[in-house]
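[recover] target loaded
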């Protein structure tokens, strides 16, 4: 699928399984973070929306303003962190490399890469919207 050219109706109809849609204060800034730290690919980036691909997976970013008629808008906290309690696990991303890129980018590494008893090496990296991105690899 060509995420650069697909129209909203066709994109919406193509979605299957579980979807992830993150509300962010600044779509372009979040795209820069995801591309730099996790090597994700943003598509159709505007001030209000982006499609983001991670391997074969795809998710969406929306600015707060696009949710004017959505019931979630009233639940957003005035102050960060807005993503508390959500872990977005990235099983195909090396945690050591991602943490190093996060430090260079200026993002908060909440937990340095660590070998966990459940068989994974993982790090916790917070974006400016407060979402916990967890790059993980089998050790």
């Amino acid at each position: 699928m060509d995420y650069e050219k697909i129209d909203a109706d066709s994109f919406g109809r193509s979605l299957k399984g579980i979807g992830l849609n993150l509300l962010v204060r600044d779509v372009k800034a979040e795209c820069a973070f995801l591309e730099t730290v996790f090597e994700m690919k943003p598509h159709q980036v505007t001030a209000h929306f982006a499609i983001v691909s991670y391997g074969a997976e795809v998710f969406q970013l929306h600015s707060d303003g696009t949710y004017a008629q959505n019931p979630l808008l009233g639940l957003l906290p005035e102050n960060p962190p807005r993503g508390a309690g959500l872990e977005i696990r990235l099983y195909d991303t090396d945690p050591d490399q991602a943490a190093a890129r996060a430090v260079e980018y200026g993002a908060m590494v909440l937990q340095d890469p660590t070998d966990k008893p459940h068989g994974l090496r993982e790090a916790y990296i917070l974006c400016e919207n407060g979402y916990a991105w967890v790059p993980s690899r089998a050790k």
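[recover] notes: The chain has a mean pLDDT of 90.
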